[in-house]
Amino acid sequence: MKYKRILLKLSGEALMGEKQYGIDSDRVQQYAQDIKAVFEQGIQIAIVIGGGNIFRGLSAEKAGMDRVQADYMGMLATVINSMALQDALEKLGVKTRLMSAIKMEQICEPFIRRRAMRHLEKGRIVIFGAGTGNPYFTTDTCASLRAIEVEADVVMKGTRVDGIYTSDPLKNSDAVRYDEISFAEVYSKGLNVMDMTAFTLCQENKLPIIVFDMNKSGNFMRITKGEPIGTLVRG
Questions:
Q1: Which of 53, 54, 68, 174 is least enclosed, having the fewest CB within 10 Å?
Q2: Which parts of the chain fold into alpha helices (H)?
Q3: Would you state the pLDDT for residue 42?
Q4: For the CA atoms of 148, 153, 156, 162, what is the dihedral angle to 10 degrees?
């Protein structure tokens, strides 16, 4: 396998499946089975999930809600998603630990870097919930930060699109997908990969990013084997 330790970032919206909101159990099952298959190859996996299928802080702010209050609500939404994925993984016999940046002792451990790394070393999938625990930071930023903290080899961003394009492929049929692109090119072309804070964290720490379609079963396994799926961003 090409990687020893992976930080997998999943979008909350992707968990909706064909629904308009909430969690699609079939989609969660597919994710859990794909993650288990990779985990059984001896790869250490940490996961960060967004909360956009339940609540988006930015959208609530536009509707007049206080931004800090809205962001905390969004963090709680990520914990709900994390619990759903944890349940699906454990039903498949995979040992997991859910760690939260906001203390919720009854349902998850507090995030402690050394403990997280120990869980990974002992063969447990670690799911990071509640973002960074701070408002004004996205779950993409959380994914980048946690990946650096636990010394992951790569951030794999599993979305509903199969990579980074010259423009939005859902709006422009002429959009072309990049197989590989540098951090500098992403900046200069104004491409939307992650928010700027998350992206800059990866660039400064020389942490590669791979954007791929997680909704196609088997893609996660193929990408961990080094197959040229999705788009690789590196220095």
A1: 174
A2: 25-39, 57-62, 67-91, 113-121, 139-149, 183-189, 196-204, 219-224
A3: 97
A4: 140
